[in-house]
Every structure is written in structure tokens, then in C-alpha cells.
Amino acid sequence: MKKEIHIAQVIVNNNSLQTDKIFDYKIPEGLQNTLQRGMRVIVPFGMGNKKLEAYIMNIKREEKIEYKLKELLYPIDDEPIINEKQIRLIVWLKNKYMCKYIEAIQCVLPTGIVNKEKKTICLLEEDWATKCYKNSKNQVELLKLLEDLGGKATLEKLYSRLSTNNINNTLKLLEEKEFIKIDYEISSRVKIQTQQYVQLTIEKKEIETIINTLKNAKRQREILLFLKEHRECPVKELLDLLKANRASLNALVSKGYVTISEREYKRDPFKNLEFKNFPKLNPNIEQKEIIDEIKPYIHKEEPKTFLLHGVTGSGKTEIYLQLIEEVLNKGKQGIVLVPEIALTPQTIERFYGRFGEGIAVLHSNLSEGERFDEWRRIVEGKVNIVVGARSAIFAPFNKLGMIIIDEEHESTYKSDHHPKYHAAEVAAFRSREEGAIVVLGSATPSLETYYRGEKGEVLLHTLAKRATASTLPEVEVIDMRQELDHGNTEILSEKLFSLIKENLDRKKQIILFLNRRGYATFVSCKQCGYVVKCTHCDITMTYHKNMKNLQCHYCGEKREEPKLCPSCGGTHIRYNGMGTQKIEKIIEGYFPNAVIGRMDMDSTSVKGSHQRILESFKNGEIDILVGTQMISKGLDFPNVTLVGVISADASLNLPDFRASEKTFQLVTQVAGRAGRGSEKGKVVIQTYNPQHYSILAASQHDYDSFYKEELPIRKEYFYPPFVQLININFIGKKEEEVYTVSKKIANNIKYILKSKGYNKYDEIVFGPNPTIIAKVNEKYRYQLLLKDIDVPYRFLKSILKYLLMENRQKFVPASISLSIDIDPLYTMGI
DNA sequence: AGCACGCCGACT
DNA sequence: GTCGGCGTGCTC
């Protein structure tokens, strides 16, 4: 038998497009029997033979090789950390989302497992001072520094102590003279997270007297008072919460009233949960029918997707639980995805309450160590159910039987960094590969999913009744145009104002909702409600204040700022741009005695502040809660009897094809927050578009009629589910360059399409246009939007692969970075 | 991404 | 001979 050469085909852990390919390494004789696919090894890479971590994707044997091959060095793992299914998943992710191998690998592995190399420099020549040229200033400086650092230092360390940013030449010269030696070391990135805590060192009784001594130190008094209540608190949270300065705290430390200690920071995901037993319920007829219909598919082990379409409270969770039970009985495993772990402790509580042990939780709030621990438990087979957010879809189960995606329509299931995967897409892939079923649940399914349901690709089940007795709230749509006619130019309609007053008087709680995120402003007429739209795109035009014009961000059409309403000739042109902060101020003015809380991205940036606001709302400390879409999800407060949607138009008029769908979902979800207790709730929706189908349908809790209105529009204007979209962002510091490069790419794509006989290239390629926030962090962004109109989707993608992946250096300068979004949820960043 | 290599201009 | 800057091209 001929002697064969064993070759490992690896992906190196180097986050660069140019190294994003398979590299072949010879396997040393001693390792030929131990190395397997999915193991990590250290390879010598590049001219300097820098040691890099690499992942074995494949092992092959060849009799001879006609190209140069290096030998890999040594393995990191003694068994594969990536299994065969995951390798297939990695390849699929790369092809589907056009990402790098390493990015796909990072999806499948918990963060922190990936090691990083370090370059260390050792001093060899102790007598360097006499042997060195007098005038080589840099060399002397470096050697001196190295000596000061004990003759050994990492490259990072050297740079941190030097002012220059390039010592490579100097190092090279010194290495040639054998004054120094350069080593590469791999260091594992295991770090214990610590957090600073403040603690009181004095008795509570003493506080009052001490406070009197702090006459001029308002913040210090506040801190002490806060600590009197809470005893201890993480430093960062305390300062953020009280808007206090570190100096105030330091003053207290130096006076000896408080101490600060460093503690290992490990968040216990179950800290605040009560694990009451959650007994199995008898399903009602509706639930039973659905369970009985899905169960056989669990046993058939064939890929199948189901959609449970039912309002909140219609008993979806019980169906999930009973299906999971069936999966467990069969010896299989299940993944349960929820849109945001922070908002859905109930879900976890229920799964724990029903199944007890054998549950893991995966989400981004876990510390690296914790995440790693949970991941290990799954790999070791100690866990049968994983509950988690988006990334939990990659749970390394071996006997996957079912994937549940609750609130399927939520945009949190779409990843916002590369690869920009959608959890439901990954679920579908795993379902096909591993013979698992997928169960999607939503009261307001995404249009795409419902469409697939109609076509039979997804098995659709509707839960019409509410499982509990509470009834859906009464919804009233207020026409803000009429308010104007009556002379009310305020932000609140008379109706909503009087209802707030009445509910406050009755000591009931109120939620006011305004979805204002992003910077999109639109232009409308106060008298007739007309909104300026692009003639080609059915998309609202965006007001650019600096240029004083209107632009369509889809096709780039520009228009003069209108002086008069193009529809009715009125003079009350409105530049819309109301946000939650402004609302808060206004409401404060109206109701000075009410306690108002605000919940949006700004007020919840601190960890835990989310819960804190909700907690005080729950305890009745807040009368009116003002918030963005954050308050639309899953909150259950029985004392809330009034929900006001300040302006349903904010999301309706966003320049995005999904604006109507988003509005429908939001209004429906928000409306569901009212009347969850014994008293029937009331919902008021303020709008300038009272006749708009998404608002009408939402006010009647009527998904079907929304769907029937929206679908033809998607068809007519070529949007999903009728076409597939690809969104490419070009990002760079010089606007001119970003534009010309993206323009060049657009022309290249069109040229290739044209040459292959696809003549709708002008409809396939949109742009380049500036993105809705055209400048972020001093960088300009332009986007290209592609639609697969009369062209095979695969071909369109192969063009992009050619231009932007395989030959990117030729077409895109290094100064411009790219972001490719396959099947973007939003094209305009809602 | 690193890193080397080549080329240039400047300073000593 | 030394030093720093910058563009280009390669990594099995």
C-alpha cells in the first residue's frame, strides 16, 4: 500500500475576508489517528509562521501533492468541539448569508471559547548597550524598554509604552542581530468578570445625623438615602440611577461611610424567578385538536413547520408545553425561542415549573463563563430543553425533535450583526437536517409566514378563543384631523385627555405608547392628513432638514419642500417628529400630580433598569407609563385600564415597505395591554389616518382583513413574500468615495445582468441611495437594494459573491466596508 | 488581519 | 546607514 499524505483542511481564526477560505495543512504522523473534523489545531500561518488557531473542516488523503504544504503544529481539543451537523450548518450559514466562515463558526460556538494569540518579545543579548550602534535611537529605546520590563514583554505591552505605532522594522533589525527573539503564544481568553459594589459601612440609624452634616453635598445625601433603602448596589447602576458623579461616591468612601468592593460578576438568570410547580392543564377542545394534530409529526421525524395563530392568552404556552412533553417522552430534545429573555421570565418559569431539571438558558445577558457552562451542559447531554433568545437556535443538541419560536413576527429574531441570520431560517434548516418540527406562534404573524401558511408550506392553526375569561378591550380610533377642526392643536385629543383624567381619579394605571425610534421624519398636511409619498415606490418621502428637501430613500427621487399641501392646498404643513421624551414633558404639564415613568431605549440603557421601571409600575408607584414598543410586549398589569396610542402614524409613515405591517403588529400588541384584570380595558388610538386598513384592522383585532389588504400591495410593488430582498450597505469616511464605489458596484451588477439577458436590471437594482441615517460615527452609508425580479435568486447571489466576496479587493477599496443583509427585515432601519 | 517587501524621500 | 511612510500582495 502506498503511503498517503493526510491533509487537514482548516479555517484559520483570522477575521479577514482574504483569509476566509480553506487552507490545507499536512497532519504530522503522530496525529494522524487522533485528529478529526471539528477539532481545533494550531497552525503556522503566513510568512512569519505566526501561530493561529484553526478549525478542521475536513480531512483528506492524497498520494502526492504538487503544491507546498506546511505541517500543522498541535491540536487544542482532544475531541471535536464542532459536530458534523454543525459543520453542515456552518457551510449553509456562509452560503446563505454570505458571511465569513469564521463568523459562522462563532455563531455555533459560545463566545469566549475562541482563543487569541499573543506575540512576545524576549531579550537575548544582555550586553546590547555596548554592541549597539550609537545612533540607532529607536533600537536603543526599544531594548531599554524591554530590559525595564524584565527582558520579556508582549507586543501590546511594548506599544502601550511607546509613542510610535510601528516598531516592526526595528524589531526585525534587532532579531537579525540576534539581540531579541520573537515568540508567538496562544493565550486563552478566560476572564472572570468583576463588578464594583458599594456597601454601607454605617448603621441605618446614623444616616439621618450624617446627612445633616452634608449640607452642600446633595448627591452624597441622595446616595446615602438610596443605600439606606437598598443596603448595597453595583456602582455603575447607582451612579446612573441617581445621575451622580463618581466624585460624590469617592467623597463618601474617604469619609468612611461606604466601601467599594470588587466582586466576581455572575448573573444568575433565575435569580428573580419563583419556581412554583406548574401543573399540566387539561387542554380545551381547540388546544387538544392542535396538539393531537401535531403530535404524530413528532414521531414521524420529518421536517414540518406549524403556525399557531392566536391572541395572547389563547393558550399557546400550554400547547408548547404538552408538545415538548411528547418530544421528551420520545427521548428527543427541544429548543424554545422567546423574543427577549428579559421580558419573558414567565415562559422560563413555566418550563421550569413543568419539567424541572434539564433546562438550560441561553441569551446575551449571561456572562461568558455562564454561557460556556450552559453550552457544556447541552453538549454533555445533561439538558433536554433550551429556552433562550435568538442565539439559542444554535444549541448543540444531538437529538433535536422540536423548535418552538414564540412571537414569531418579532424582529429580534433577525441578527443585527454578521451573519445577519433569522432564527426561523436557521430553525428551518435544522428542521430539514435533523428531522425536527418547527412550531411558530404569534397573534400577529409575519406576512411571509402567513402567506406560506395559505400556500400549505406551513400548517396553519388558529386559536380563536381566549383561554381565560378576560375579554378583548374596547378600541376607539380618534381622528386627529377632526381634533384640529375643533381647534385642538395639542398632542392629546380631548377624548384621551378626559379618559386619562378619569382613570387617574379612579387610581387606575395608564400606558401611553409612542413608537418613535430612529430619525425618520415625514411631512404631512394637518388639514387633510396627506403624506408626501414617492410616485415610484409607495414609500413616504423623508424630510432632510439640512438640504430642505424631500427624498425617497428607495429610488433617490428628490423634491422641493412643499409650501402648500399638494392635495388640499392647505397651509398647515407638519414636520412630524414627536418622541417619548417630549410626550413625558407634555403629560407632566397636564397632570402635575401624576407620577410619570418613561421606558424607552434611553431610559433603559442601564442593565436592570428595565425591570426596575416595570417593578415600580407594578407596585403602583407610577401612574402613567410612557414608552416605545418596549412596553408593547408581554406586560401583564391588571390595574391598567387605559392604553393610549399617541400617534399610530409614527410607524405607519416610516419609509419602509413593512411600515403597515409593523403598525398593525404594534397597535394590536399595545391594545392587548389594556384590561387584563377584572375590569374591561379601553384603548384609544390617535391617528391622522383613521381609515388606514392597518389601524382599522388592529382596532378590531382582525388579522385576516389586514392580511387581505396588505398582500396585494406587496405583490404590486414587488416586496416579500413575492420577491426576495438583498440589502448591501457601503460604509466609509469619504462620502464621495462611498457613493462612487457603490454606484460602480450597482453598474457592474446591472452590466452582468444585462449581458446574461436579464433585462429588468433597473428594477432589480435599486440605488445607491443614502441610508436613512446617512452618517453614523463620521461614516457615510449608501445602500443598494436588490430584488429577484425575473432573475433566479441564486444567480443574483452568485453575482454578489463574485463582486463582493471573491474579488472584493478588485472592486471595493479597503477604505470602504460592506454590510450585506440577505432577506432584510427592514430596508430602512425602523 | 498581519506581515513582508519594495520604493521613496529625508536626515545624519 | 538609518528611519518612517505607504502601496501592494500573500497567507496552504
TrEMBL record:
InterPro entries: DEAD/DEAH_box_helicase_dom, Helicase_ATP-bd, Helicase_C-like, P-loop_NTPase, PriA, PriA_3primeBD, PriA_3primeBD_sf, PriA_C. The keyword Zinc applies. GO terms for molecular function: 3'-5' DNA helicase activity; ATP binding; ATP hydrolysis activity; DNA binding; zinc ion binding. Zn(2+) 1 binds at residues 525, 528, 565, 568. Residues 560-746 form the Helicase C-terminal domain. One of its GO terms (biological process) is DNA recombination. It is an enzyme of class 5 (isomerase). Signal peptide: none annotated. The keyword DNA-binding applies. One of its GO terms (cellular component) is primosome complex. It catalyses: ATP + H2O = ADP + phosphate + H(+); Couples ATP hydrolysis with the unwinding of duplex DNA by translocating in the 3'-5' direction. Residues 297-463 form the Helicase ATP-binding domain. Its EC number is 5.6.2.4. PANTHER family: PRIMOSOMAL PROTEIN N. NCBIfam families: priA (TIGR00595), PRK05580.1-3 (NF004066). Initiates the restart of stalled replication forks, which reloads the replicative helicase on sites other than the origin of replication. Recognizes and binds to abandoned replication forks and remodels them to uncover a helicase loading site. Promotes assembly of the primosome at these replication forks. Component of the replication restart primosome. Belongs to the helicase family. PriA subfamily. This is Replication restart protein PriA. It comes from Anaerovirgula multivorans. The gene is priA.
